[in-house]
Amino acid sequence: MPTSRKTTAKTPKKTAAASARAKGSVPSKSASAALQGKRAPAFALSDANGKTVALKDLIGSNNLVLYFYPRDMTPGCTVEACSFRDNIAPIEALGAKVAGISADSSDSHAKFAARHDLNFPLLADPGNKVCRLYGVYKMKSLYGRDFMGIERTTFVIDKSGVVRRVFPKVKVNGHTDEVIAALKEIG
Is 131 known to be catalytic? Predict the structure, then answer.
């Protein structure tokens, strides 16, 4: 006489990203975009020389292009930084400054800036505290591996400290042109 075997429904396994989101450790995908139209979160971080630089120091009487990038010396991050470097004159002509933020150390930033003659500050956020404030520290996936990291994102912040434009998941080629167009829009 055959015996009946109980079958239980298998629940799908959560991905690392879904599990982290459920625990509240990962901001929603739209966290950075949600800042558009709101006051930019204040911060103070060390630059490549170890000097503390605050958001209010960067803005002053200027608009600000604040970009977050994954890592110094990597191909995409180098192309992005060099594009901002090469286009600093038109950006400044539109009344804006540029600053970059990653989790790398001040020493790493100093080497990166020196190697590529960068003409704007790079700020160190080794604990990703500011990256979390801006919603750019997210679950990422590469070659089937999930991990937490910085999503390449640019914020255009006006003179009053309001985020006027957010560019999430930036593709580096042509990005500086998009930023310049956004700066023209806000005047």
Answer: no
